[in-house]
Structure formats: structure tokens, C-alpha cells
Design brief:
Blueprint lengths: L4 H6 L7 E4 L3 E5 L9 E5 L11 H20 L6 E5 L15 E6 L19 H14 L2
Antiparallel strand pairs: 1-2, 2-3, 3-5, 4-5
């Protein structure tokens, strides 16, 4: 894809601070980090949504993310926890439409977090959960 910033990084058309690279994925520092040490793990093939990746490549993204997690925890980067964040589609907050996994070091009061609507605290009935579960389960491959 010619106008994709991640494809340009993958093709060495734009600079990046590379953490990791193999034949299938690349990992580099986020240029607009939530916290120091914020890293993106990106498949080398251009696909917008994670559902477009095969199972092996999806696993590879998370396996590389886990290795980065361990390295961050051993480093001197301030980190009391790690978020894995993958925005899958515009409504989920995806801004670059090339699948990518964020590895974000976290610490108390760092100012980052998810905001829940007030209805989040109104628990659904078991019947509703079971119905949704059945619909999704039926469609799984």
C-alpha cells in the first residue's frame, strides 16, 4: 500500500527505531508514545484488521509482544505493568489502518486508561450473555 506509514517503515522508506524484525513482523518505537518504551508490533503484510491475518501471523504478533514485554520488565523503563492494545477498526480507535499491536509500559497515575460508560456497571442477565455467546460460538471456525 503506497500511502500506509507502516508499509513505508517496513520498506525502509521512512525511519524507525527498530526493536525487532523477522520475515513476518517488525517492531519499532511508537513516535507518539503513551509512555516511554511504547512499542508497535506490525505484520509485514498490509492487512487492516486482525481477522484478515492467518492464525500463525496473529500468534507471531503476540509472541513477539511477549518477548518485548519481558525485555521492558528487565530494563530501566518505568513500568509497573504492560498493556497490550490492538484497535481493530475505526470505531475501536484504530488510526493507522494496518494491523498493529501496541505494547505499552504502564505505571500508577500515568494518565492513560479506558473510560467506561455508566451502563458498564449494570451487569447483563445470564440469559443475554448466553444468547450472545451462542451466536458468536456458532460462527467460530
Amino acid at each position: 500500500m503506497t500511502d500506509c506509514i507502516f508499509c513505508k517503515i517496513i520498506n525502509s522508506e521512512l525511519p524507525a527505531s527498530l526493536i525487532y524484525e523477522d520475515d513476518h513482523v517488525i517492531a519499532f518505537m511508537d513516535i507518539q508514545p503513551v509512555n516511554p518504551g511504547h512499542i508497535l508490533v506490525v505484520p509485514k503484510i498490509h492487512k487492516e484488521l486482525i481477522a484478515e491475518l492467518d492464525e500463525d501471523l496473529t500468534s507471531r504478533l503476540f509472541n513477539v509482544g511477549a518477548k518485548i514485554n519481558l525485555a521492558i520488565r528487565k530494563s530501566n523503563i518505568k513500568s509497573e505493568g504492560i498493556n497490550y492494545f490492538l484497535a481493530d477498526g475505526e470505531a475501536a480507535g484504530q488510526e493507522v489502518f494496518h494491523t498493529h499491536l501496541h505494547i505499552i509500559p504502564r505505571f500508577q497515575n500515568d494518565g492513560f486508561g479506558l473510560k467506561f460508560h455508566k451502563t458498564y456497571y449494570e451487569l447483563p442477565k445470564r440469559e443475554e450473555l448466553d444468547e450472545i455467546c451462542g451466536n458468536i460460538k456458532q460462527l467460530m471456525e
